[in-house]
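hey can u check if this looks right to u? its 125 residues, i copy pasted from the old doc so theres a chance i mangled smth
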Amino acid sequence: MKKIFFKALNFNSNETYGTSILTANSFFDRLLGLMFKHEMKMPDGSIFDGLIIEQCNSIHTCFMKFSIDAIFLDNKNRVVKYHKNLKPWRITPIYLKANKVLELKSGTIKDPIQIGDRIEIICIN
């Protein structure tokens, strides 16, 4: 994963979901995602808040060591579906309208989040 950080902001509720979110843009990064990690930590020890996976409409949490929150977004970054506290060894349905997912630390998503909310993803470095 490249160490380029993003911020995710709910345009409708003004809630911030993280300020150090990474993107999985290589095949290897997309394949591994958060599998085998005990926490959201880079190899250099730095902590991150979440992971953006592009071209993705379903995820699994197999081989993960912790629960996550997940927000599925369409091509205009509108919320298609979200899951709170998705535990290890789960598989989400396929959301045909989604084209990316934002994986976050469990407990990050607070109410109110609505289907159709627009999430701004802003590069911060």
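The chain has one domain: 6-123.
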